[in-house]
Structures are given as structure tokens and as C-alpha cells.
Design a protein that fits this description.
With 275 residues, the protein is an all-alpha fold. It is 83% helix and 0% strand. Helix 4 packs across helix 6.
């Protein structure tokens, strides 16, 4: 049941990211999406017990990483195709976690993990080179996004287990993230925030609900079962992203990017279930 819901969350994640990519103002779209998280977070914080003290360092770490994640994500979508940037950023994240474990903790790689690494590497490289007019700028931001995903996945996964309840951790994270992003946008775009909200509230509300639901499902699943398989299934969203980019956004290089994304998803699945 947990894994099936995580697969649904992967679809939700790809959809809300595609809505953000297709928007005219990505910062304000992100702000509107995160504002839905404020409502969710307030409801949880008011109705649930206080977060456990030992989870607070992980909460703050995840929050700081999310700030950098949003910066990289907005710029990646500003300069690159959705069906290229999204699979690279999501596909590289588990590869980064694996590499850090090998370098800093001397973790030994099994043959299955080496095969998974090869599949992901080939898939990501193919995606990076899928556009004939090669522009490194979106790739830099996509790679930065991947490092952030790896960071907040680990910190959130550990934090939710120490918080006493996944509701408590997710509520506080959504509340703090939403408030800080909203304050930043109001500071930067004083005159346009309310105007944008009035014009795009339906799309923003829909995307915000999907975003909150996708992350809450992932945290709930990580509080019940092993983190690695959850993270692996969640990253199958790369396949949904290429489909959305090809048929919803009319981006090119469909066959090449679909094949590359399947390689990435297969590699991630091998990594997750080999743990």
C-alpha cells in the first residue's frame, strides 16, 4: 500500500513541477504553491503535539536545503526544457547519496549497485546531450537541484522518524518553508504578488495541493518502511515528466529522452531495492 501511494505521489510531483515550468513567473508560482503549504502547516501545528527536540536540527537542516533547492529549481526551469532538467535533477540525487556514502563512509558497492550507477549515468548523460543546441546553464542548476534533493531527502527521512509523528514534521516544514518563501517574494515583488494570485489562483491551488500531498505521502511512507525503496519509487516521476514534456508542452527529442528516462528510473529502482 505504501509503495503504491508513493507512485501516485511521483505523478503528483511531476504534474506540479510541470505547472511551475509552464508558468509565466516561476518565482510567484512557487510562492503560490508554497502558500498552500502554509494552510496545511498551520492546521497540523495547531492540532498536533509539539515536535520532539531531537528532530529540530533535521527540520532546520531540511529547511535550509529547501531554500537552495528552490533557487536552483526556479533557474533550471527558467533556462532548460522540463523533460531534460527534471529527469537529470531527480535521477542524479540517489547517485549522489551513493557516491557520498562510498567516499566519506567507505560503503562497499554491490554489483547490483554498480549496474544501477551505470544505468543512471548513461541515462543522465543522454538527457544532458539530448538537445543539439547544448547549453550548460540549465544543467548546472539541474545538478545543483539534485544535490539539494539528496540532502533534504536524507534530513527529512531522519527527522520524521525522530519527530514523533510524520504529521508534525511535515506540518512544521511546510509552514516554515511557505512563510519564508512568501516573505521573500513580497520583498522582491511587492506590487505583483496579489495580482498574480488573483489571476492564477486556480492553477496555483491545484499545484499546491499536489505538492503538499506528494511530500506528505513520501514522509508518511518513510516513517513506515525503509527510506531507500521509497526514494527509488518516488523518482519514477522522471518518466511521467518526459511524457508531460513531450505531449503537454510539445518539447522535442521525445524518443531519446523517454529512453534515457527509463534507464534512469531502472537504475534508481535497482539502487533502492538493492539496499
Amino acid at each position: 500500500m505504501e509503495y503504491l501511494l508513493v507512485l501516485v505521489a511521483a505523478l503528483f510531483h511531476a504534474i506540479w513541477n510541470s505547472l511551475m515550468k509552464g508558468s509565466s513567473d516561476k518565482l510567484l508560482t512557487l510562492t503560490a504553491i508554497r502558500s498552500v503549504g502554509i494552510v496545511y502547516g498551520l492546521g497540523v501545528v495547531i492540532s498536533q503535539p509539539t515536535i520532539q527536540m531531537q528532530a529540530i536540527p533535521y527540520l532546520l537542516s531540511a529547511l535550509l536545503i529547501l531554500y537552495l533547492y528552490f533557487y536552483c529549481l526556479v533557474n533550471a526551469y527558467k533556462f532548460g526544457d522540463f523533460s531534460q532538467v527534471y529527469p537529470i535533477s531527480r535521477g542524479m540525487a540517489p547517485l549522489i547519496v551513493l557516491a557520498l556514502g562510498w567516499v566519506f563512509f567507505s560503503e562497499q558497492l554491490q554489483s547490483v549497485q554498480l549496474l544501477a550507477t551505470l544505468l543512471i549515468s548513461i541515462g543522465v548523460l543522454s538527457l544532458a546531450l539530448s538537445n543539439k543546441n547544448f547549453d550548460p546553464k540549465p544543467l548546472y542548476f539541474a545538478i545543483g537541484t539534485a544535490f539539494c534533493i539528496a540532502g533534504y531527502t536524507v534530513t527529512s527521512g531522519l527527522g520524521v522518524r525522530l519527530s514523533g509523528s510524520f504529521w508534525v514534521f511535515s506540518g512544521w516544514l511546510e509552514l516554515l518553508t511557505g512563510v519564508s518563501v512568501l516573505c521573500f517574494s513580497v520583498h522582491r515583488r511587492k506590487t505583483t504578488v496579489l495580482q498574480f494570485a488573483r489571476q492564477h489562483w486556480r492553477t496555483s491551488l491545484f499545484a499546491g495541493i499536489l505538492s503538499v500531498a506528494a511530500f506528505a505521502i513520501a514522509l508518511w511512507a518513510m516513517s513506515r518502511v525503509a527510506m531507500a525503496p521509497v526514494a527509488a519509487i518516488r523518482e519514477t516521476s522522471v518518466i511521467f515528466a518526459v511524457i508531460i514534456g513531450a505531449w503537454g508542452m510539445k518539447e522535442g527529442f521525445v524518443f531519446k529522452r523517454m529512453l534515457a528516462s527509463v534507464l534512469v528510473a531502472a537504475g534508481i529502482a535497482l539502487l533502492g531495492f538493492a539496499v
